[in-house]
Amino acid sequence: MLRSRMLAVSGSALLLAGLAACGGSTSTGSTTSAVATKAPSASATTDACAIASLPLTTAGKFTIGTDDPAYEPWFKDGKPANGQGYEAAVAAAVAAKMGFAAADVQWVVVPFTNAITPGKKNFDVDINQVSISEERRKAVDFSSGYYDVAQAVITYKGSPIDGKTAVADLAGAKLGAQVGTTSYKAITDQIKPTAAPAVFDTNDLAVQALKNKQIDGIVADVPTAFYMTAAQLDNGVIVGQLPAAGGAQEQFGLVLTKGSGLTACVSKAVDALRADGTLAKLATQWLTNAGAPALK
Amino acid sequence: MANPPDERVDAPGGLTDRWVPSALEQERRAYRRSRTVRSAAIASISTILVVGALGWVLTHSSGWPRVQETFFDWDKAVASFPAVLNGLWLNIRVLLVCSVLIAVLGLTIAVMRTLRGPVFFPLRLFGAAFTDLFRGLPLLLVLLLLGFGVPALGLDGLPQEAVFWGCAALVLSYSAYVAEVFRAGIESVHPSQRAAARSLGLTHTQSLRFVIVPQAVRRVLPPLLNDFVSLQKDSGLIAVLGVVDAIRAAQIETARDFNFTPYVVAGVLFVCLTVPMARFTDWVARRQGFQGSGLV
């Protein structure tokens, strides 16, 4: 009984995968995303990762969650579905790699807390600049990392930490970061300032505090730091980039519910995108990474 | 605590000349006793059944192990306790300072609003405008306006600290509520009290101070406690300005491994603060001779 049903399912999976591939190639013409032009092919997905055999939230659809507001440079104009911005583009590329047509990709708003709590979820994957860590793996599944991230310190021109070159020189500064981020952890674990760090709900509030000179600097991931200095601050400067904590490379990963049946397939798609250079290309397209001096 | 005279019947010494309830009355009493025992038994069984059923449904739901792991992890609770307690210390300090200021400002505004005579119209107008404005404005907006807006003015001499402006916002917002509670209390004191006080030669101020306000405050103690407990938790809202209170500390601890036990730790600590406070207020109210209308 079970076997026959499995056979029927895998049969229809092949059929659907074929259909999806056709759908993909017809709909790519209408989308503006540079990513989606990489036409998905049914042959790229093995049976285990065929769309019909995936335990999707909505059958036949790939549902991607992210928080609202969706911040630049990870998203653009607050519209994840437009495929612009690094994470929007990566998510679209992952979906395409897994064989989903652009029309079968849907975005939902998932507050960050919602993404990491147990229970039934309304998304298949969540993409929200979440850093992978072994501790967090106890609560959620992560795909392979889609971005190698480093933390940077920014400040305003003429601040007490403007022009500093060593991590130790920052210990006297009042630093701020967004709550629940590895940036905050970088302050407490690496910089170890004498003044208690300020913690903000969002990076926007941290930027406001920096503008008011209520804090001396902000720690954020490098692309966000560049975005802040370029777009959000009038006289913002990058102090430098922090060395990797404990020598381990920090990575952003897609979040899936604990024990999700999709994790392996999503990881496979991410790995393929890394191998074929798509991730690097998208990073160059959407993120500014270069030019942050390394702090000693 | 009725005092049944017939109990002495059972006493040794054969006081048979004393009044003995009739056989019919004894039968009635026995029946009533049996009904009481029966009710108690039914109540106990039904409580055990309901609580047991709820507990069983809870612990046998498919997601319970995950929920238990995520919210009730003993090791995580122990690990996060110092940080959360440290955050709670900020709540307590803010609570103590703000509650005194709120009581003073609230009572002042309440008295302003209850002044009679055309000459006091500006004060009445101010009192009404103040309560209307700060009861209407969301506390979060007041916090953001004062905490980020005022420092942005760049005026010299004004404090920049987040805690200062956070407390200022709490005091303004809560004073509006507390003023209305006090006003209700003041207006609930019968006019004859004021008339009597004035006829004894007390000035308007003296009659307020010695006659009206003491009675008013005693009557509104329970709602004032409500506001006090509410303030205890809202004191954490100043965390949006970058400082770390108990809940923010819990959030930071949660971000490390996506385990929500620290929030439960903070919740338990808040309840531990609240319960003794409620008992204390009851005690104060009773000591002042406030029996409420329930007791005759």
From TrEMBL, chain A:
Secretion signal, residue range per the UniProt entry: 1-22
Occurrences of domain Solute-binding protein family 3/N-terminal (ranges): 61-290
Pfam families the record matches: SBP_bac_3 (PF00497)
Protein name as annotated: Amino acid ABC transporter substrate-binding protein
Gene3D superfamilies according to UniProt: Periplasmic binding protein-like II
InterPro entries, per the entry: Solute-binding_3/MltF_N (IPR001638)
PROSITE patterns, A to Z: PROKAR_LIPOPROTEIN
Keywords attached to this entry: Signal
